[in-house]
Amino acid sequence: MKKDITKAGKAQLARTQKPSLDFGSAWEYAPSPESTDHVKLQAQYGLFIGGKWKAPKSKKYFATISPSTEQKLAEVADAGAADVDDAVKAARSAYDTYWKKMPGKERAKYIFRIARALQEKAREFAIVETMDGGKPIKESRDLDVPLAAAHFFYHGGWADKLDLAFHGRKVRPLGVAGQIIPWNFPLLMAAWKIAPALAGGNTVVLKPAETTPLSSLMLAQIIEEAELPPGVVNIVTGAGQTGAALASHKDVNKVAFTGSTEIGKLIQRNLAGSGKKLTLELGGKAANIVFADASIDQAVEGIINGIYFNQGHVCCAGSRLLVEESVHDLVVKKLRDRLSTLRVGDPLDKNTDVGAINSREQWERINELVAAGEAEGGERYTAPCKLPSKGFFIAPTFFTGVSMSSRIAREEIFGPVLSIMTFRTAEEAIEKANNTMYGLSAGVWTDKGAKIFWMAQRLKAGVIWGNTFNKFDPSSPFGGYKESGFGREGGRQGLSAYVEVL
Amino acid sequence: MVKKATQDRAYITSIGTVAAGRVSVNKAYKMYVGGAFVRSESGRYFQVEASAIAGSADPEVVNIPLGSRKDGRDAVLVAKNAHEPWAARTAYNRGQILYRLAEVLESRRSELTSSLTRAGSTAAEALSEVSASIDRAVYYAGFCDKISSLVASHNPVSGPHFGFTMPESMGVVAIVAPEEPALLGLVSTILPVIASGNTAVVIASRRDPRTAVVFCECLATSDLPGGVVNVLTGDASEIAPHLAKHREVNAIDTWSADDALRTLLEREGSGSVKRVRSHDGRACAALRDEDGQGLGFIEKFLEFKTVWHPVGI
Amino acid sequence: MDRLETHEDLGFASDLLIFSRENRSLACGNLRRVTVLFYTPVPVDQVAIEERVAALAKRSLKKQAKVQGLKLAISMMDLTTLEGKDTAGKVTALCTKAMHPLDSDNSIGPCAAICVYPNFVRIAKRALEGSSVHVASVATAFPSGQSPLPIKLEDTRRAVEFGADEIDMVIDRGAMLSGDYQKVFDEIAATKEACGPAHLKVILETGELGSYDVVRRASEIAIAAGGDFIKTSTGKIQPAATPAVTLVMLEVIRDHFYRTGKKIGMKPAGGVRTAKQALHYLVIVKETLGDAWLTPDLFRFGASALLNDVLMQLEKERTGAYQASEDFSKD
Question: Which of A156, B235, B285, C196 has its CA 20 to 30 A from that of B45?
């Protein structure tokens, strides 16, 4: 059978989309909201500095809202430069007084305590994470919170084995780590930052994102209950200004930032000449590459997981789908049907697959890029689902016929929007996959083992998922090539971000 | 500028006066880019004094190309093109080539030694630096196929997946070489970078660029593919900021720079999220010790790539 | 057999495929035109399949969604007894249960069918007279299928003669595993012919096939050869039905539907014992094939113990009290 692929136009696409399946209302799932009854949020949160809760010297507070209801959840302190300075001083004092003198095996037990407490309070954390950030409860319940606990467990075990991690070379802590984390995995990112820092013998000042501060503040409560020496972990809330004050504080020895490439560059620039150690985990525009010989149905699941997981608010999201041309129509057809089964809506509903966009600002940016995608000639398909009337929601969307030069193929959208392109040969797939300033992750789908390795060798990305996607583990180093940042988090390799090897 | 003529050196000191004996052939010092010896595209040069020693074929003053921004650009281009094939060679093959380099260095021991003495080292210092350089080349030659074993990992992830993390080279590394030691500094900074598959654009010591050029002649005769190591001569302060800004340079390794230049390079590097490593004078001096080599020198210019795959039937 | 045939307008080459000898495929496959292709089996990724069904197991079904799902499950049940010690009494009792699963509530049931050995088809037929409950008979030297084809076909014809509405045949797993796909195809096609008007369910006995890849290939062959349903297991081998193997088979059904518009039915059998499991299967069907398959015409459970657990859960939903197993008839 010879198929004239040059004729593959819209008409043919339409023909190949039939017959299609009907995911209608024959059997509806009733609403199944997770109860929020036993979650008690404070009306107002102060700053966690030196083991105590303090009102901000700035005297300013800001509201954090639920993006799915637009209701205010709590007020949190807006830390100013003086507050950040207090936090760094507390961290320095804790470092000098307790932490750097404490044997690794003792430090370890504190880290394990945090891990345990997170497991004990898992449900509460999952609910708050979902309320504050908009992500589906099933993700915060099954991924964010257990993985956060796992990161503490994993790194607790390193605290007394650091010398082994570097081939017998001695290591020493860096001192005070200033850490700035994003809003897409608030608790998990806090764990990724705090756990290795503490294991390495550093003290911490952490600034969560302004739209998702609550789980970090609850983590501070855990740290308080775990009786960590005062000042070993300090949590300051605020927006960009607070983060800037932290990163540029002269007594911070190490800066770790996860967020946009734009801000990452700015931080790197501002730290020039400071001698501070820096790790950056920035944006991405990952290629998810599907070969014709792949397990197509499983690849479709991988595509869905790659881009619609966490509303696409994932730096390593598989936002560029590269499909071998011979299976393009088939994959698109399957994707369309699969999109119909995605349940978008109340993040607290246990059956929700795609929750709320984290903020109005992000909602606007995604919509702007979707409009750009249409303007630039991409053909849009959006899942036919009803969106809640309140809150920030975007139905899962993909574009076909996307050119490599269009904005939706080049810019990080950070939303549930997939750009689909085709390739003909493995070489072409590599060329297109690497044709980006980013290099955080990539996916490869093929049943041929040799091809997986061939591709993995050539993809310029820090994480390659072969026949899977969006897998994370504390033992598995994560981080980017190129403008997706530098340094690794997780695994033995991630430890070097928090120690000086002598 | 001219100091004194030695007995058997033949050159014209002034019109009408010719020294006795054979007229020697003087060497033109050039930069090493893409496997070829080239002048600066700018046509500029600077002069380096030679301390007159017996047996030297050098004129007392030599003209060294004063590398320009465009020379830097050209070098980055060839280094970029050389990277993929160099990284794709087997680690064993890279090791063989570095070992070949050690052999060539050994065979040019006397030339390297005299080049160092002409730049001011005592004979004993020069001899010891050359020996150390050769030994260091052997050290890194034998390291190429050990790197992965030492830094890669199998990641025991919680699930039905096989995961591993392997090191890869970063790409093009710009090196602002130590002012001194001139030869050992080059060997100690270039070899750990290329051992893993990176290619390098190096700004040689301004103090002693001639030794760098002799070293390049060794590189050129050691089976090293053209473009893997490119050595520019001139002012780091002029060329390096452009390398730091160049989007195809993946990393910068700064050894000889004052605070202002170091800060500038770090700042410019941020534009493309470069991996910037800075060292001070103490670190340069430490290159003379046994501590001046090791896995740490290699590791700083590795990316780590993590691969996941399901395990199933 | 290395020549395989397929619809000309399949649209995708990696998918398959019909085995054809002379014009048999025309008889059973409804083909208009065929084109020769090289056969490339579609691989199945075990980890991803199992991940997907695990994710679907987390669907939370409450209140009316649960009640509706459980009632649907009952209507899809092939109440089964396939034992050497089966008797007329046992089969008759089972038929009564199939028609009236819960004496106290007529809105529940009836089941889709009862599934028996050929010897009990007449008895069942009589017991079920006037009801909508079908009689399914296993045939083709169930469960091993290790008899000559003429005997297996005779077994089938007899069962149909006795009144079976549906035939549950077994494939030759030995032929499947030794690569004699033609034999597997031919036997199914011949059995289909022997079925006459009766619907044919093709039991793959997935627990013996060793991998999802083989399950997938066997499903493709069964559908190509004319099976109306594909079914996981005899119930005599462990593992029997699993959510993952069911999903693999549903994906073949989906691909066949995409290609031809034809709907093939699915029957997990054996190992489905609890209401919770049944709902999980229904979720998998709903989210893989959609509304059209949420009917006994296209989805069945082969089970015996499942019914009482589903009834218990329905009563619990109705009364709000957890039930005792003693309250439900054990037939």
Answer: B285
User: Is A476 domain-assigned?
Assistant: no
Report ipTM for this prediction: 0.95
For residues A439 and A461, the answer to whether their CB atoms sit within 8 Å is: yes
For domain C43-327, say whether CATH 3.40.50.150 is its number: no
Cis peptide before A208 (omega within 30 of 0): no
CATH of the domain at B232: 3.40.605.10
What's the total number of domains in chain B?
Answer: 1
Angle at A80 between CA A77 and CA A82, to 5 degrees: 120
In chain C, domain spans: 43-327
The per-residue pLDDT for A262 is 96
Asked whether the beta carbons of residue B310 and residue C211 sit closer than 8 angstroms, the reply is no
Residues A219 and A111 placed together within one structural domain of the fold: yes
Which chain A residues are closer than 8 Å to C71 by Cβ? none
Active-site residues of C, by number, are 168, 231, 267
C-alpha–C-alpha distance, residues B293 and B193, integer Å: 12
Give C250→chain A minimum CA distance, Å. Answer: 11
Write the CA distances from A242 to A27, A151, A268, integer angstroms. Answer: 50, 26, 16
Residue A233 lies in a domain: yes
Question: What is the average per-residue pLDDT within C237-243?
Answer: 97
Searching chain A, which residue's CA lies closest to the CA of residue C37? A1
Contacts A22 to C, Cβ<8 Å: 290-292
Within this chain, do residues A167 and A253 fall inside the same structural domain, yes or no? yes
Task: State the average pLDDT over residues A221-226.
Answer: 98
Q: What is the CATH number of the domain that holds A248?
A: 3.40.605.10
* Count of domains forming chain A: 2
Residues of B in contact with C47 (CB under 8 A): 160-161, 310-312
Q: What is the mean pLDDT of residues A282-307?
A: 97
Q: Do A216 and A302 share a domain, yes or no?
A: no
Q: A19-43: per-residue pLDDT in tens?
A: 889 998 999 999 999 999 989 999 9
3-state secondary structure of C158: helix
The reply to whether A32 falls in a domain is no
Residue of C nearest to B310 (CA): C47
Query: Would B146 be classed as within a structural domain?
Result: yes
Chain A adjacent subunits, 3+ CB pairs under 8 A: B, C
Q: Write out the H or E segment, with its range, that includes residue B116.
A: helix B109-118
Work out how many CB contacts closer than 8 A connect A with C: 107
Residue B143 CA to its chain's centroid (Å): 18
In a domain, A409, yes or no: yes
pLDDT tens by residue, C304-319 = 999 999 999 999 999 9
